[in-house]
């Protein structure tokens, strides 16, 4: 991935803003994670797949320097304890975290539409 930098007139380097396409891709990934999480409720072995996929999303958010979102995914992962033989202890909390993340993404995209 190429990160574009802009040299501002005050002498600082700044990463370009995250594009709408990136937010759309993140939203799509969150939707997939939500579906995976719901499926994992009845198939406890799927918890590890969900955890791995959420870790990949975290890495992608960090690469995009979307640190506020990455922090939320990190919080989600901190509460996620994959189990192979018993139901998830934090199922409702994880579900709520995913829903809040999706809402934040939608808000960011609507802000971008307003700005331009």
Provide an overview of this structure.
There is one protein chain. The chain is mainly α. It is built from four helices and two strands. The chain has helices spanning 20-42, 47-63, 67-79, 91-115; strands at 5-7, 13-15. It has a two-stranded antiparallel sheet. Residues 1-15 have low confidence and may be disordered.
Number of strands: 2
Strand content: 5-15%
N-to-C order of helices and strands: EEHHHH
Radius of gyration equals: 16 Å
Between the first and last Cα atoms, what is the distance in angstroms?
Answer: 25 Å
Q: Helical proportion? A: 55-70%
What value does the average pLDDT take?
Answer: 81
The coarse overall form would be elongated
Which secondary-structure class do the elements indicate?
mainly alpha
Unreliable spans: 1-15
Number of helical segments with 4 or more residues: 4
In order across it, which strands form the biggest sheet?
Answer: 1-2
Largest sheet: 2 strands, antiparallel
């Amino acid at each position: 991935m190429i990160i574009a930098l802009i040299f501002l007139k005050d002498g600082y380097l700044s990463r370009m803003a995250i594009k709408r396409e990136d937010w759309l891709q993140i939203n799509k990934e969150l939707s997939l994670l939500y579906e995976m999480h719901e499926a994992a409720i009845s198939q406890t072995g799927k918890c590890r797949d969900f955890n791995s996929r959420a870790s990949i999303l975290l890495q992608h958010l960090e690469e995009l320097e979307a640190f506020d979102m990455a922090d939320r995914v990190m919080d989600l992962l901190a509460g996620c304890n994959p189990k192979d033989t018993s139901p998830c202890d934090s199922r409702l909390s994880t579900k709520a975290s995913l829903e809040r993340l999706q809402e934040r993404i939608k808000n960011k995209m609507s802000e971008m539409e307003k700005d331009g």
